[in-house]
Amino acid sequence: MESSPSSQYLSGLLMAAPLMRNGLQARAPGLVSRPYVDMTLALMRRYGADVAEEGDGNLRVEPGAYTATDTVVEPDASTASYVFAAAAVTGRTVTVPGLGTGSLQGDLRFVEILAKAGAEVRVDAAATTVTGTGRLRGGFAVDMGDISDTFMTLAAIAPLADAPITIHGIGHARLKESDRIAAVAQNLRACGIDTAQGADWITVHPARLAPHASPVTAIIASRWPSRCSASPCLARSPWMTRAVWRRRSRDSTTSCGGSSPGTNCLPVKMS
């Protein structure tokens, strides 16, 4: 099964496989976002599915049935990336309980990138905590192919770094609900940020506006999914405090420091 555009198709087949008469044997050349498939397999096993990973990369699911069991649903690591990033750029501390070392979600690796950018990160069995310095270190390139749902979060705070940040390995993000790379570049340019992009990468340059310049009003094209509109909220700074969200034919205005369209609620502790 061709899996270079997305891992979602494979995950869907895998989840249905135990209920198939003959089970399923699948091979996924070009698989992207492998952590999402790993999470699917782990949960299938938790519910009693017989899943085997063979040495040649094949996945085999035996016919059978799922067994009901109690499960604690983790906070969403993709959504948590927004509050973790906000802590990194503001010098605050954010803790997300229930998202710790035992997490099945690959997107929790986003905090490793924040650590590379200078934030203090602590992950234990019960929670993940990010403490920022109020300054963001850039000057690096990072492959986010396995955690591409969070690349827009990093791109949104990259203008606040002291040097350019390049995100690569994300070509499949152009094939989502919208071209996410193009959407990010468009919204950053609307805020006066220089960007460059290629087939599977984007480079975001630091903001060059004076700290005490007048606030910039930016027209934000909030394409699907909601991450395209939520991410720009993180770019709040003395030179950008207001944004106009444009979705289809309706416009609305919101402060970049407040809630954004489509964001989810998290059990967050902020200090």
Automatic annotation (TrEMBL):
GO biological process, one term: chorismate biosynthetic process
Domain Enolpyruvate transferase: 3-216
InterPro entries assigned to the protein according to its UniProt record, in alphabetical order: Enolpyruvate_Tfrase_dom, Enolpyruvate_Tfrase_sf, EPSP_synthase_CS, RNA3'P_cycl/enolpyr_Trfase_a/b
Keyword Transferase: yes
Pfam family, one: EPSP_synthase
GO molecular function, one term: 3-phosphoshikimate 1-carboxyvinyltransferase activity
UniProt cross-references to PROSITE patterns, sorted A to Z: EPSP_SYNTHASE_2
Keyword Ubl conjugation carried by entry: no
Coiled-coil residue spans: none
The entry's keywords: Transferase
Protein name: 3-phosphoshikimate 1-carboxyvinyltransferase
Organism: Streptomyces lomondensis
